[in-house]
Amino acid sequence: MNQIQLQAKMDLLTISAALEGAAVTSIRFQTEEEAEEVGWHARPIVICFDNGTEVWATRDPEGNGPGCIEVKQPKSGFLLGAPVPRNL
Hints:
The protein is an alpha+beta fold.
């Protein structure tokens, strides 16, 4: 296993520890203030958990912009790309 693979595995363990067993409390668009804090002009969907963790998609690992969350429904297999609006 090379260094990049090892780091990816460590990152996955960290993310798993934050999310496994946590319950979703709300799903909302990022606020204008949150978008400004990270320098974005668009506001992605934020998934909030009962342990205070928040998840949103970024364009790339460096966070150079918001990204789209894909949602696959288990029974139908329907895939929905969540919007990333510039203005709400």
